[in-house]
Amino acid sequence: MQYQRVRKIINIEELRKKTVAIVGLGSLGSFPSLLLAKNGVNLNLIDFDRVSIENLSSQIYSGEDIGKYKTKALAGYLKRINREIKIKILTEKLTPSNLKILDSDLIIDCTDNLEARFLIDSYCYKKKMWIHTAALRATGLVYVVNNSLSDLYSGDIKLDSCSEHGILNSTASMVASIASAQAIKVLLNEDYEKDLIRFNIWNSTFDRIKVKSLKKNEVKIIKLCRNNYSVNLSRKLDLDAISKKYNPILRKDNLIIIKPRDNIIINRNGYIIFENTNEGEVRKWLKFL
Amino acid sequence: MVKIFIERQNKKLSIKAKDIGEIIKKFNINREEVIIVRNNELTPRNEKLKDSDEIKFLSVISGG
Q: Which candidate, A128, A286, A152, places its Cα nearest to that of A222?
């Protein structure tokens, strides 16, 4: 009876077998968690932060939650919404060494920084789809990443943050609605939205933007914040050969992490994240890979 | 003439321009802050333009 109305539209039985990892439980992450929980989707909730008073206007939390970890506060709320679903709490910051916490049927990126987003990208590249979301003030963005996040950007990226420029809760909830609908489509193997969706809730504008993937062997280097670089070589790499030479600190099916000084995360399909370096060093490394 | 929209400056107008780089220079657009959309498709930043192209310079957003 609980799902009677939604069952007329989607395959709830199939959906209830699925688990979604929500990375970041702030303005963007709290609302899709609610929508997916109501549809019976199991959730892995990932965030290291605690609820603070300035979160209350744009996030799902209440005054009673102040000081609690967002994972615990949200899990408690969602359990009251739907007792049937399984919720796993992961009160951790996503780093190269704990990427396994992303294991799930689908990842929704609700983070507020490019480092985490490109880590998710390096983990998922050519292996599984994921959903990228972002918002600022009245503008929101949702993109089902079938190839790579690097398709969206070129060169250096300069970013503004919500803590600096604010966010409307209507922006966050609109992002959540679009992202949740797309998540359900991906989980049920239905035809999802291939274009990047970008809207401004204040001006009532809505764009669907086509995204081109890199050609084979095309190289794209993107400078992220804090001297991190994302590199897409658009060609396969021999992880066994690289492992023999550089002795990885972590190995997981499609990627390895080596640490000559700072972390270098290498995806088998030619997608690399360099931490704390400069472009000269990156280009030097690319000659060896 | 090409139609342009620069979100950060809230400018919407029609101008003559031979390529995207010319618009970036003319309107002092910071490349690091925008994604460029040509006729509803994300584009590399220095493409030559055709008459009646629509170019949007949309702010990169990354908050959450």
A: A152
Residue A133 contacts residue A108 (beta carbons within 8 Å)? yes
- Taking only the tens place, the pLDDT of each residue in A262-271 is 899 999 999 9
Using CB atoms, pick whichever of A110, A207, A211 lies closest to residue B64. A110
The residues near A236 (Cβ < 8 Å, ≥ 6 apart) are A268, A269, A270
Q: What are phi and psi of A242, to 5 degrees?
A: -65, -40
Six token digits for residue A76? 């408690």
Q: How far apart are CA A73 and CA A52, in angstroms?
A: 12
Amino acid, res. A184: I
Residue A237 binned pLDDT confidence (cut-offs 50, 70, 90): very high
ipTM (interface pTM)? 0.91
**CATH number belonging to the domain at B2-59, selected among 3.10.20.30, 3.40.50.300, 3.30.9.10, 3.30.420.40:** 3.10.20.30
Instruction: Count the Cβ atoms, other than its own, within 10 Å of residue A82.
Output: 18
Task: Characterise A49 by phi-psi region: left (phi > 0), alpha (psi -120 to 50), beta (else).
Answer: beta
Q: Which residues pair with A127 in a beta bridge?
A: none
Domains of chain A from N-terminus onward: 4-209 (3.40.50.720), 220-288 (3.30.310)
Q: Do A136 and B61 touch (CB under 8 A)?
A: yes
**Interface contact B61-A140, CB threshold 8 A:** yes
- The model's pLDDT over B13-52, given as tens digits with 9 standing for 90+, comes to 999 999 999 999 999 998 888 999 999 999 876 788 999 9
Residue owning tokens 């290498």: A266
Percent of chain A with pLDDT over 90: 72
CA distance readout (Å), A128 to A98, A120, A124, A145: 18, 10, 5, 9
* CB contacts, 8 Å: B30 with chain A: 158
